[in-house]
Amino acid sequence: MLVQFFTPSPLLAPFIESYLVFEDDGGLKDLPLNIVPSGVPEIAVHYGDLCDSHLNYPGEGKGGYLYGPHNRPGYFLARGLIKCLCVLFKPYGAFRVFGYPQVEYRNHVVRLEDMCGMEGLNVVEQVTLAETIEEKVSAMDAFLTGQYKKAKERPVPIDQAMRIILYSKGVVRIHNLCRHLDVNIKTLERQFKSALGLTPKEFASIIRINHAYQLMNSDQKKQIGDIVFECGYYDQAHFINEFRHYTCCTPDVILKKPDDHVIYLNRMYTR
Fold first, then answer.
1. How many domains does the chain contain in total?
2. I need a surface site. Which of 30, 50, 127, 170 has the fewest CB within 10 A?
3. Of 124, 150, 176, which residue constitutes the final position of a domain?
């Protein structure tokens, strides 16, 4: 299995975390991978065998897609070898690169050619046909650079609020956040939907559930009560209900049999 990261060009570095090339050796064939929302859009160009995606784009095959911000889970099923180039955006990075309000792609998977026309179609072909991984990454970086240069510059007034949510691992009351920033909650919700495609409450919940999963995945000896306390949930029932909502399974399943329930997080490979 190949997992390799690449740094974006300096122009795109403020908006893109990294490029990720993932090539499976066959071990994931016919294994359902739960897609857990990460709060951040992602681009994936699939140049391996056919695969099924069950978000809003059933029967997905080869091609390039923008996976918009999701507040609900889905699953991905490989019918053969997975080979893909992924663009891991930073929060509101896709908004800045393409210039489109991300609420337009909320809970949607969109073909790059549908979003960017011939340029989207061409980059998928270039990535697919490139002989080396470096050439694949270079083609994607050039495409995104062109999109960024064409995009209308848009202000992002949620930077401070977003950083507070990320720093707190999602454990923050939105009303308290609004008071701290002296902003109306409706205004903050509108700004978040435009830049991230999610409300601040949804974004905080997704960040928190991802943190909870990472804690469970890093230490199988942890008890559910420990996770509830560390992640600031009201009680165990609250945590279990929210975990089930975002992952389609309960936390005790992950703790007891982690290898039987592979959870695919958009950032699971982040260094």
1. 2
2. 30
3. 150
